[in-house]
Design goal:
- This is Guanylate kinase.
- 46% of the residues lie in helices and 19% in strands.
- It is of the alpha/beta class.
- It has a domain of 138 residues: Rossmann fold.
- Strands 2-7-1-8-9 form a five-stranded parallel beta sheet, with helices on both faces. Strands 4-3-6-5 form a four-stranded mixed beta sheet.
- The longest helix is centred in the C-terminal third of the chain and has 16 residues.
- It is globular, with a radius of gyration of 18 Å.
- It starts with a strand and ends with a helix.
- Bound molecules: guanosine-5'-diphosphate and adenosine-5'-diphosphate.
Amino acid sequence: MLVLSSPSGAGKTTLSRKLLATDERITMSVSVTTRPPRPGEVEGKDYYFVDVPTFQRMREEGELLEHAVVFDNLYGTPRAAVEAALSAGRDVLFDIDWQGTQQLGESAQQDLVKVFLLPPSAADLEQRLRTRAQDSEEVVHQRMAKASDEISHYTEYDYILINHEVEDSLAKLTAILQAERLKRRRLTGLSSFVKSLRDAL
Ligand SMILES: Nc1nc2c(ncn2[C@@H]2O[C@H](COP(=O)(O)OP(=O)(O)O)[C@@H](O)[C@H]2O)c(=O)[nH]1
Ligand SMILES: Nc1ncnc2c1ncn2[C@@H]1O[C@H](COP(=O)(O)OP(=O)(O)O)[C@@H](O)[C@H]1O
């Protein structure tokens, strides 16, 4: 499970899309949210957009792996899709905040790789929020005001990427993923491979 968190506008969505396009072994976890869709966002691809009662029912019935309130909206990770992907041997990418990351860590610390994305500067963050041009002025203000709080959680993450150039960040994120996949404890079938290798020597 690879988690990508950042203050809003630092580039998580952009980087996630690029990683998904270049790496066949990873699946995106599509969250449910009560936030209204932005122009161009696709139901079932960017989010599952639901109303508050539906979200509450999902939470009460244990259908969410984690959930949190972010910017006054509810967000959560549907459990079934993640479990199915992991059982099929796939890696799963999460674009979730620090609250959700902490909750995933409570149940699966060993299986979690946590990456935090920082903007190069406050001015860059504000410009990115504005050039996305999908949020009202009030929403941009609200997200800038929350950015410092979000950033304060960077110490809870394994890796930090300062997102200057998207392609450079993608190369670094890919390197993190490759290295984490090569961790000895993650290599399924390794002991039998080594045994057969040694038997042949
Ligand atoms: N805990 C949690 N956070 C989520 C989930 N989905 C999205 N988020 C976070 O909610 C915040 C707001 O997301 P969004 O409204 O799409 O705006 P964005 O920050 O521009 O991507 C971001 O920090 C996301 O990482 C989720 O399922 N669980
Ligand atoms: N490395 C980057 N350099 C310049 N602009 C970027 C970079 N990464 C993302 N952006 C732009 O910044 C805006 C916010 O990016 P987005 O991926 O939506 O952020 P997040 O998902 O973290 O809120 C978008 O307009 C995106 O095109």
